[in-house]
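Now for a sample.
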Amino acid sequence: MNIQIHNPSNLPLIDYRTIKPLQGKLKKLKPENYEKLKNVLTTRGFRVPLFLWHEELPNIYWLMDGHGRQKVMMSENMTPYEVPYVLIDAANIKEAKAQLLEITSQYQTITKEGFAEFTLELEAHELEAITFDALDFKTTTPVRRQKSRSIVVTFGDESQLEDCLVDIQDVCEKYSSAQIKVNE
């Protein structure tokens, strides 16, 4: 199966079949995600370089990022075999493993609102291959931003406001887009 290899920065190339995967059984590629990734590779091509660590002795190139793509490409015998890569500096395999975990870590959280805003101009077919394990929502279509609404509550004095403010804050914490504005 032939795919398009994108290399606009003219990075060095390596035969993906010769690279040794570093992550072992750290992550699992589910069958439905395998198909999604296969579709991405066949329709959009290979667009992002692999991240590799080179162990001088015994001259092994270890894969740090791109395990799913390598697995799909090997199973489907995708050609060309030469793909772009970037070398990651590590003193030894222990440091390389620590860096792999850093690369794999998701330090920021994707929110429903953020996802909706980011994908607003994308079409549903452009989101079909997108998968996020840690999210409690699943969608393949962009969520359209709804018009915001406001409620104005007027209190007779500051003590009444203080009595209610904790309850209002508790309710607002449930909704990441809720805001409290107190006018003097």
The domain at 13-104 is CATH 3.90.1530.10 (Conserved hypothetical protein from pyrococcus furiosus pfu- 392566-001, ParB domain). The beta strands are 13-15, 20-21, 50-55, 60-65, 82-87. The two ends are 67 Å apart (CA to CA). Helices lie at 31-44, 67-75, 93-104, 112-118, 124-127, 158-173.
